[in-house]
Structure formats: C-alpha cells, structure tokens
Amino acid sequence: MAKRKPHEEQELPFVALMDTMTNVVGVLIIVLVMVGLSVASAVKKVLSDLPPVTKEELKEIQEQVKQLPEKIDPVKVEEKQKQAEAQLKRAIEDLKTVDTADLQKQMKFMDLESFQKQLEERRKDREASKVETDKILAELERLKALLDKTPVYQPLPPTYVRLPNPRAYPEKPNETRILVAKQGVLFFNQAKFLGPILDGMEKVKSQLEFQKVDYAPFAKLLETILGTPANAQKAWPEIAPLVDRVQLEYVAQAYKALVIGGIPATKVMLSDIADISVATRQTMPVVADAIVAAGKGDVAPWVKLDPARPPAPPVIKASVGGGKISFSWGSFTKDVKATPKDVAGFFHDLAKVKGIENASKARTIYDAARVQAMLQRAAASPLMSGSYGFEPKVIPALPYVQLALTPKSGGGETIAALKQPNSGFIHLMRDIKADPNGVAIFQVMPEAFEAYLEARKVADEVGVSATWEFLAKLDLAVNISGYEVQRLAPTPPRAGAGAPGAAVSIAPPKRALD
User: Fold this and answer.
1) Which of 97, 345, 403, 412 suits a disulfide with 390, CB 3.0-4.6 Å?
2) Pairing of the two strands 174-180 and 184-188
3) Which residues contact 34 (CB under 8 A, 6 or more apart)?
4) Per-residue DSSP letters for 13-33?
5) 425 and 187 in contact (C-beta within 8 Å)?
6) Are 175 and 190 spatial neighbours (Cβ–Cβ below 8 Å)?
C-alpha cells in the first residue's frame, strides 16, 4: 500500500501578519480621530446655536426633567405585547363561535323591494301632508288679510261701579219702585198710585157688594166640585145666600160633605158652619167633616179643631158614652144622642153662642163684576195721572181683582234727563230720603244694567236708601187685595209635605238695603 503523503501547510510569514495588523489599527485610529473631530465640531456648533440660559431657567428645566415619566423597560413592553397578542387570539377564537343565525334571519327581511315600497308610501304621505299644509297656510294668509282690515278696538268709557253696603230693611217700608229700561227710568209708588183709587172705592163700597146673585158665573166652579150640573143646580139655593161672606168654593165642599154624611145640607146649617169655622179658625169643609164624624160617634176630629193653644185651657171638649155624646164649648155644655140629627142640632145651638153667632158676617166679599166696572171708570178718568195706565182684570183663580199696568207713552225720564239738577228723578229721590221709611227699589231690565248704574249713581249722591232686583218686563200687576171677590175656579190641591209630587218651596231671601 502506497504511503500517504503528509499534509502540506502553507503558513503566512509572521512579519507579514504583523504588518497587516499594524495597517488595520492605523486605519482605525485615523477613523476614530476623524470621527472625534467631526463630533467635536458638531457639538461646538450645537452649543454655539443654543441660546444662553440663566440660572433660573436651568433650575426650571431640571424640575421638568424630574417630572418626566420613568424610563420604559423594553422587557415589560415585550411582555405586554405578548399578552395583547394572546388576547387577540382568544377574541378571534370567540368570534368563530358566535351564532349569527338571528342576524341572518333579520337580513332576509331587509330586502330592497320592501324598502322601496315603504319609501313610496312615505312619499305619498308627505305629498298629502303638503296639500294640507298648503291649505292651512292659505287660510292663515286669509286670516291675516282679514286681521289687517279689522278696525282697532276702542275700549268703552269707564263704568261707575259701587261697592255694596248691606243694611237692615225698614220694618214698615214705604217702597217706591224705579223701573229701569235701556232708554231711561219709570217711577211707581204703589201706595201713591193706589191711594186715589182706594179712596174712590171706599166712598162707593156699598155699591160694590152683591145686589143680585146669578148662577151662571159660578156654574163651572160648582159643577166641578159637586160632580154634575144637576147636583150644582140643586145645591145653588142653599149655597147662594153665603155669597157675600164665604168663598162659595168652601161652601160647596161643606155642602158635599154634609150630603155624603147624611146630615141635611140646608142654608141654615151651612150658615152655622160658616160662623163656627170663623171661631175655630178653620175652613168650612174641615168643620163639616168634623160634624159628620161626630154624627158617627167619632169626636176626635172635632176636638182637634180647638182654637186654644197650650198653656191655655182647651175650649172644645167631647166624650162618647152610653149612646150619647157630651159636648162642651167653654161654659156651654150639652149632651145629645149619638145620631146625625141630634149632633146637627147641637152645632145649630152652638152657632147661637155669643162670640160665634154671626161671626162670618164680619167679612165682606164683593162682586167682582162691580169692582171691575168701577176700576174701568177710574182708568178712563182724566184725573188719573202718572207714568202708567191700567186695566182691571178678573182672574178666576184669584180672590181679588188685578190691575195690569202698562207704561204710558212719554212717561218717565231718560238717563240724560234724570241727571239734570231739577229733574223729576232727583225730586223723587229727595222725597224718598225725607221719609224715614222711604226705600227706592230699582227693578232693572236684563239689558239695562248700565242705565241702572247711572241712575243709582245719582241716587247715591242724594243719599237714598235703596236696593235693586231684576225685572223681566216693564208691565206690572197690582192686586186690589183690600176688596175680596169670589173665586170662580177651584183652588189647586196642595201636595202634603213628603207626599209624592209634593213641591219643595224655598223661602225667598229677605230684602236688605245695599
């Protein structure tokens, strides 16, 4: 086997190596010197460009340097970066598991066609709203034009207003009514107006009584109470004699009660009942019912008619026993059999007792036709002056003749006239003030309140005691109540308190001066 040749190594001479190293070191030294010169030059230039710094500025800069945040550690930054990358990977993995089924379902409804339809509907609604808006704007312009043509409001002149001063009303007032209309006022004092009329009637009052009694005026009244014309005509001779002292309505009702109770309804018996009714302060029908009840043995209704009031001792006493009735009227006592005939005899005797006999004759009822005729002559007399004319009227349901008053043409005073110093209104106000019981009652029409304020201002300046109330119309009605006449129609029945249909009456407020 051939012998391996030894490796031939070619080594650099040591001297050559040292030369090379020397050259490298020299070059590096030269580079370092150049770099150092360059840095020194740059530093010198930077320092030369910096502005001079005072001690105070240097101290402030040092404080700012101290406040700078700590140096950021690269290791910590790398760790935070790794943590953020890990969190990002986890978030990506979580997103892969999110259920998007609901979102996909909702996306199915979000199709373009439905949106286009909705857009079209919205456009139609907008166009319709625009039409309505245009109409409103047109109406607004029209109203503005009308407003421009509307005259400027001029406020009314100030109105006199007074504060009320409530005071007590006189016990016996002498009232003068001042009727206030829009044009002016009318004066009416009932006492002064009726004074001449009543004086004239007083002089001829005997001529106003019944001279002859006819059945015809009372036929309807009697037929209503007694049921038939035959019954009314049969009762007329017994009823008619009381025409001048008792309302025939009550006489007819008493007649009917006696007939039903089996007691003879004669004119004598009716006259006795009329006298007894005055003594007991009851109506004839009530007394007749008590007599009928006593004839049947029941004396309680008669005892209830006792005119005495406790603590005075009773006037009427009655007791039943042994088929007899013991009656007493004060000191007058009588025992009778408990039969209708004997009971009627007791009441006939009772009517002869002093204090009862002819008690009903103290009252006079006048002939309505004669009273009316007399008042018509007075109304036509030229001597009747004043602001009102009148016409007498007989109203069937009223027991007196009524005067219907109407204003005369030219009567009263206007608002401008009553303010004059010597006006009739001012003279009237002074007369009312001079009377201690004088009262002016202003009765105001609904549309005349401003006129009332002007008239009341004048009255207040005079110092008159006055009050006011509303008046529906200028026409008035005055009753000739001092001359009672026969009613020609029955009085409507009154419902008892608490009975079905009973009217609830509320007393009017008491008058007071204001």
Assistant:
1) 403
2) antiparallel
3) none
4) PHHHHHHHHHHHHHHHHHHHH
5) yes
6) yes
